[in-house]
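Extended Data, record Aminotransferase
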Amino acid sequence: MKEQGEDVISLSVGEPDFNTPENIRKAAFEAMESGKIGYTPASGLVQLKKTICEKLAKDNHLEYDVKNIVVSNGAKHSLFNSLQAICNPGDEVIVGVPYWVSYPNLIEMSDAIPVYVEMKECDGFKFTKTALENALTEKTKAIIINSPNNPTGTVFTKEDLQVIADFAVKNDLYVISDEIYEKLIYEGEHTSIASLGDKIKELTIVVNGMSKCYAMTGWRIGYSASSEKIASIMSNIQSHATSNPNTIAQYASIEGLKGPQDSVETMRKCFEERKNYIVKAINSIDGLSCRNPEGAFYVMVNIQNFTGKHYKEKQINNSFDFSEALLENEKVAVIPGIGFGQDGYIRLSYAASIEMIQKGIERIKKFVDYLN
Ligand code: PLP
């Protein structure tokens, strides 16, 4: 629609609307200029792995050696490698609903089966102990967790994570902990589940990367920290599938993790201002509501009051109908909750300028006022 000249406002994107910080861009340039353009070890530069170990020790109280680290082509690739490394055909992997869209597909690509556990809005979009226990079978191999969460923005507290850790340790399950939004937190703090004890650390594959917190989505650098055994399997898979991730981006990532962190804080503050605006604005629209998310750059908006209503001739039966009618009539792009496994919601991203957000919200209000 945009290409056809339509004035579409997108509140759907999953990437920061900032350029990569200058010191990181410069480091990439310097790497190229000094000829650091060849292959690196398949699982990543030792120098970058050391930097990642320092970061994990400093930020997450986690002691790892370079042998535990695999650097990949983005966090998604680290998730892929993790699942390929641990799953046998028919294994079950527990996923919270709403989930990040790729989890079910990544699980299925490893011949395993996603088992869905609802994380209800009334529980703050978190797992409950009972729901986890009900999902357990003798085939359960792992659980994927994501905090700060996409799409809900929920951040799991230490207590929430302890429940998951106890469940995993008791039943000998791997935990894949996707921490890609780690530094985008507005309330509370980030805890890595692996830091809760030696047993859970051994079972956890920590996944993180440069995309979201350093505005480096296109650079494609992610990493994992796990037991040496799992890291070595992941490294073998990666070696034969893709070889090393982009060398220049690896050098730039060293600067990203080691260099000044003030640009991360500037971006975080900017996201926080937008979040405060969007949450207030949504909750002031009759019939819409959303909880105040603690992290990431998304809000899940409850649209259940509008199920069965009509926009002109069209009946709104689900989140897809709602999103489609909103796009066609008011030119605002959002993601239907059904894409995250949870109908009755739409996801708004506030990785957009405040002007765009304001305009988008005005149009959403107009759309909703028209529904009857
Ligand atoms: N995990 C979550 C929860 C995400 O939202 C995303 C990107 O949208 C990723 C992983 C993938 O990150 P990367 O760009 O590093 O592959």
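Summary. The domain at 22-258 is CATH 3.40.640.10 (Aspartate Aminotransferase; domain 2).
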